[in-house]
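Try this one yourself first.
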């Protein structure tokens, strides 16, 4: 493989590039232990989550987190813009959805005693959590993060160990806040009217998320001002080509996640609409009259 030349690494490198990312190791091991304790406590209370959810949490969720941080994207993220972009974008958009398949909040409800459930409810209903999990707010934070890729901070984020550790913890957390309203729907119920506005906003915003990727791809200058190639390996691209590849990765991922997220939001809208319809069906004629009268009074 020594005579290989080109911007794409050889398969051998992709499969054998591994490291220990200590920040990721703490996050992964802590999550694994907490989930296992939750499974044991829930089983003691007579509640056993579906086996496929447990497998999804460990194999798909924590497994993908391990590959991204300890595998090829993590090993080369400081040197390759496109590897760093691949890692961060998947940590934000994909890993939280895969972890969420394990329904960690539902498991916590099944495992905790009544006082613990009350504290969990208090935390979930806190204004900051509600704000950050709002589908009109959380994606803007992702856009702000990706916009830094257009500045010299792009190099600082990928080359500074402290910044990398903070991103390892912070980006999946932000992604979880974006994903929880979709996956743990019972804890984030909103009216169907709100969902309508939310879907329109998120559709526009997800398209806007691709703008940093487009700008990275089409710009003719190295935006982080680091033009030296940091390796003599033949398959390493030049600085500008590396930036363009990072733009391709970000552009593709931001666009490809649009469809499943919008489909999930339509599913949430449908469920919310059905719940509201059942609620109206359960009202008596007198209660409906009172509801209509209250609506008319507010309209005056």
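Now uncover the answer:
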């Amino acid at each position: 493989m020594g005579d290989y030349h080109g911007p794409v690494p050889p398969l051998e490198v992709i499969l054998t590039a591994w490291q220990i990312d200590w920040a990721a190791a703490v996050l992964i091991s802590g999550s694994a232990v907490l989930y296992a304790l939750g499974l044991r406590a829930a089983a003691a209370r007579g509640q056993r989550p579906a086996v496929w959810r447990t497998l999804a949490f460990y194999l798909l969720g924590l497994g993908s987190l391990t590959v991204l941080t300890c595998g090829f994207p993590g090993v080369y993220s400081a040197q390759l813009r496109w590897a760093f972009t691949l890692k961060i974008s998947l940590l934000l958009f994909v890993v939280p959805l895969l972890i969420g398949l394990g329904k960690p909040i539902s498991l916590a409800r099944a495992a905790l005693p009544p006082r613990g459930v009350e504290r969990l409810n208090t935390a979930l209903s806190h204004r900051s959590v509600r704000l950050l999990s709002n589908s009109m707010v959380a994606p803007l934070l992702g856009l702000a993060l990706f916009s830094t890729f257009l500045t010299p901070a792009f190099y600082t984020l990928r080359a500074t160990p402290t910044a990398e550790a903070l991103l390892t913890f912070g980006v999946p957390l932000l992604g979880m806040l974006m994903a929880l309203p979709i996956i743990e729907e019972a804890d984030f119920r909103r009216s169907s009217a709100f969902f309508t506005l939310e879907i329109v906003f998120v559709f526009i915003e997800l398209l806007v998320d691709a703008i940093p990727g487009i700008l990275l791809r089409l710009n003719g200058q190295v935006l982080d001002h680091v033009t030296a190639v940091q390796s003599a390996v033949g398959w390493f691209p030049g600085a500008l080509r590396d930036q363009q590849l990072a733009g391709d990765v970000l552009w593709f991922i931001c666009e490809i996640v649009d469809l499943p997220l919008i489909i999930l939001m339509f599913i949430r809208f449908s469920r919310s609409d059905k719940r509201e319809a059942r609620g109206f069906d359960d009202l008596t004629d007198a209660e409906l009259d009172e509801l209509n009268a209250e609506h008319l009074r507010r309209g005056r």
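Discussion: Confidence is low (pLDDT under 50) at residues 1-5. Residues 11-276 form one domain.
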